[in-house]
Amino acid sequence: GNSRGTQMPTGQHHMVRTDTLELKSEIEKKIGRAKTESYLNLLSKFLSLKISKSDFDKLIIATVKKENIGLHNALLRGIITNVCLSKSNTT
C-alpha cells in the first residue's frame, strides 16, 4: 500500500521563513491601520505573557473579526516558525 504523508518530498525538508510583513499588510487591508496597531499591540502583550490566552482570544476576535482569524493564525504561526528557525540557525 501507498502510505501517503510519511515521506517528505525531496528538497522540502527545511522550513522556510514566513513573510510576516506580507501577512501584516493583508491584515491592515482588511481591518485598517488603527485596528492593526491595536492588534499588533495585543499580539506583543500575549507573546510577552502579559495577557492570558483566553483574554487574548476574546480581544483578537473583537479586533480582527472572525472572518480574518485565518490571517491572524497564519501570522502567529509565521512568527513562531521564524523564531524557531532563527534559534536553530544559531547553533
Automatic annotation (TrEMBL):
A GO CC annotation given for this chain: SAGA complex
Source organism, top-level taxon: Eukaryota
GO biological process terms on file: regulation of transcription by RNA polymerase II
UniProt xrefs under InterPro entries: Hfi1/Tada1
Pfam family, one: SAGA-Tad1
GO molecular function annotations of the record: transcription coactivator activity
Transmembrane segments annotated in the record for this chain: none
Protein name, as recorded: Uncharacterized protein
Record lineage: Eukaryota, Viridiplantae, Streptophyta, Embryophyta, Tracheophyta
